Amino acid sequence: MHPCHHAKTSPDKPAYIMAGSGETVTFRQLDERSNQIAHAFRNAGLKPGDTIALFAENSPRYFEICWAAQRSGLYFVCISSRLTAPEVQYIVEDSGSSLLIASKSKADVATKVKEITQLHHYWSIGGDIPGYQPLESHQQTFPVTPIADEMSGTDMLYSSGTTGRPKGIRPALEPNTPIDADNVLVQITKALAGGGPGDIYLSPAPLYHAAPLRWCMTFTRLGATLIIMEKFDPETFLEYVQKYKVTHTQMVPTMFVKLLKLPEDVRKSYDVSSLKFVIHAAAPCPIPVKEQMIEWWGPIIDEYYAGSEGNGMTWVKSPDWLSHKGTVGRPVHGELHICDESGDEVPVGTEGQIYFGGTAPPNYHNAPDKNASALNPKHPDWSSLGDVGRVDEDGFLYLTDRKAFMIISGGVNIYPQEAENVLITHPKVADVAVIGIPDDEFGEAVKAVVQPMPGIAASDELAEELLEFCRSELSKIKCPKSIDFDPELPRHATGKLYKRLIRDRYWGKSGSRIV
């Protein structure tokens, strides 16, 4: 399946609509424009297996470029629009990109990137950038028909760097793969999400992130119409669901939290009855949060566990989740194994590192050590994303936390996700991170850094209230010993928390803005 087919059967149907501006791109326009850009790629000397980079906010040109690269057999690197010039430089150079496409809104950073890099080509979208060739006018010189040597390309995405410098994930490209060949996500979506031409898919997150990009492109393959939010806002999200009669969407738990913290009368004022499928991932969802979302929207909320690396996936639908609360599902891609530090499988119910077998292991670009560390020491055909969890007697997986975030206090392993899941449900907490900080006696002590809700002042009294709240739900050893307050935690626009940046403040690696 591919948008080129929908361009023939439903040429005037919207492929996507930019929610804020209302700009609409039909399947015919998407097909023709991506063909023109594919010709421009070939004219620039790009051949199958080469790499381009895209540095832009959510833009109507985004998918035209991605589909052009996909049908040209190229790797396309989608770069966070929040990065600085040196960070963009690292990614374009590490990925081996020969072309950078940047949006006018990122002109300040893009201009600096051109000064410190030596790529073959620099193109702009949405307006002029000094030293960049405007793509919209350039592509008009090329045909709207397909290039002669079409083959399937793919994304090459970089980790968000929450635990270190980002690494590119570069899957193998099979030569001469047809552009309309199904992939694993398309097959899973057809089987479990029921996506099709009659659906309206709302994407509330930045397109440079793996999940929004891949889910959007998957639903475009299936012929659905996408509604692209330029930026997530909880009430605006509900407004778009009602306005466009949205049927499908992909979210992260922090979006659920923000929706639930809207006043009840606001939440009830919007009609969300059109929704028939909601998928979420990115982090474990606090049980009370998901319970409230299912009560509000019904048993239409599915959850999966996977990574950009594509080495495995679990999935759970609402009915199974309600009978196995906290699970992220059973495997739908790959075999699931829970192992100890020696690489041996552990008994049912025992925590250990999560591995997937029967799938291709991650391929981190220019990172042989990371590739090796992802493999099980005794079963090198099993690979891991570094997460810790357990499996119950019914085969359902439960995530504990990232292994890298584990706190060792007095020889006891503590996973901060448990305390975070409790504290985020407190009505005075907007966001929270739990970390380990240096402690002379125990090695590490458990610390919570809390972002209060608007209008709530940080105080010793609030800290004590939150500590007591946590202790009422968890054993004392799992709870923070102390709480600091921060006006805004460093969270990625996709919902992922930059916990490393918070932790570094306490380990002497960066300045602090704790108040």
UniProtKB/TrEMBL annotation:
<dbReference type="GO" id="GO:0006631">
    <property type="term" value="P:fatty acid metabolic process"/>
</dbReference>
<protein>
    <submittedName>
        <fullName>Acyl-CoA synthetase</fullName>
    </submittedName>
</protein>
<dbReference type="Pfam" id="PF00501">
    <property type="entry name" value="AMP-binding"/>
</dbReference>
<keyword id="KW-0436">Ligase</keyword>
<dbReference type="InterPro" id="IPR025110">
    <property type="entry name" value="AMP-bd_C"/>
</dbReference>
<dbReference type="InterPro" id="IPR042099">
    <property type="entry name" value="ANL_N_sf"/>
</dbReference>
<feature type="domain" description="AMP-dependent synthetase/ligase">
    <location>
        <begin position="5"/>
        <end position="359"/>
    </location>
</feature>
<dbReference type="InterPro" id="IPR020845">
    <property type="entry name" value="AMP-binding_CS"/>
</dbReference>
<comment type="similarity">
    <text>Belongs to the ATP-dependent AMP-binding enzyme family.</text>
</comment>
<dbReference type="InterPro" id="IPR045851">
    <property type="entry name" value="AMP-bd_C_sf"/>
</dbReference>
<dbReference type="InterPro" id="IPR000873">
    <property type="entry name" value="AMP-dep_synth/lig_dom"/>
</dbReference>
<feature type="domain" description="AMP-binding enzyme C-terminal">
    <location>
        <begin position="418"/>
        <end position="496"/>
    </location>
</feature>
<dbReference type="GO" id="GO:0031956">
    <property type="term" value="F:medium-chain fatty acid-CoA ligase activity"/>
</dbReference>
<dbReference type="Pfam" id="PF13193">
    <property type="entry name" value="AMP-binding_C"/>
</dbReference>
